[in-house]
Specification:
247 residues; alpha+beta
């Protein structure tokens, strides 16, 4: 996939990403229709640079999420429970980087990510990935099972003056067994900035009357491929996202 509007943005090598760190970080998420994307990028292009790897500016991610048969993590997330987990395997296609990841959030809203490299993605949790979970979660690891595949393309912009990062996730689609649901017109924008810094992107979202707020790709994916799951807490967001698909 190619987006011509990305070609005019100044580039910054992907290996510079590791040097961008925040001591006290603020995250924000926005959902909007893809028809707004070109105008948004045109307005922020003087202030942001685009991450690239060997000339590529758009990157494909294939992610497999795990949960219990009762979908414990899904319901904890919908309920806003602070002590919760996300467990996933991920492949970044262009760089061929593959890893297993445990993301935990405690009751002080602190998020910790632990990651180990994988030789290949699997629908089983074994080896170092299993050991990571055994040492860090109070859940029977043998009860975990693959729940949903999540696929998307991502592009990342950086404001070199503030180190603010903005990612756009595009062409989001979900699959589990024979069930597949795509959201081709949905854009998921995530902002990471230093606490107290000014975000030109967030100011633009306010100007365009695009409200902050969203949904995790895991919850959206699971609600999409398992429509029998309870989803009252996210029903307004699901309704708005489905409106994008009708455009």
């Amino acid at each position: 996939m190619n987006l011509p509007l990305l070609n005019d943005l100044r580039g910054i090598a992907m290996d510079k990403k590791a040097s961008i760190q925040f001591i006290d970080r603020i995250d924000a998420r926005y959902l909007f229709d893809k028809t707004h994307l070109e105008e948004i990028i045109q307005k922020i292009r003087p202030h942001y640079q685009l991450m690239h790897f060997e000339g590529k500016r758009l990157f494909q991610y294939d992610t497999l999420y795990f949960d219990t048969p009762e979908r414990l993590f899904y319901y904890q997330h919908l309920a806003g429970k602070l002590n919760r987990y996300k467990i996933r395997s991920c492949r970044q296609v262009e760089t061929n980087e593959q890893y297993f990841e445990l993301k935990s959030r405690n009751n002080k809203s602190f998020t910790r990510i632990q990651r180990i490299r994988l030789d290949d993605l699997s629908e089983d949790i074994s080896g170092n990935g299993r050991q990571l979970l055994l040492q860090n979660i109070p859940i029977d690891v043998s009860s975990l099972e693959p729940a949903v595949w999540v696929y998307y393309h991502r592009t990342m912009l950086v404001n070199p003056e503030t180190s603010e990062r903005v990612t756009f996730d595009l062409n989001v689609w979900f699959r589990w067994r024979s069930k597949s649901v795509a959201y081709p017109n949905l854009v998921i924008a995530d902002v990471q900035q230093e606490k107290g810094s000014v975000s030109l992107f967030k100011n633009l979202m306010k100007e365009k009357e695009i409200r902050e707020g969203g949904i995790s790709k895991y919850c959206l994916g699971l609600a999409s491929v398992e429509p029998t799951l309870k989803a009252n807490a996210i029903k307004p967001i699901l309704t708005r996202i489905n409106q994008f698909n009708k455009c």
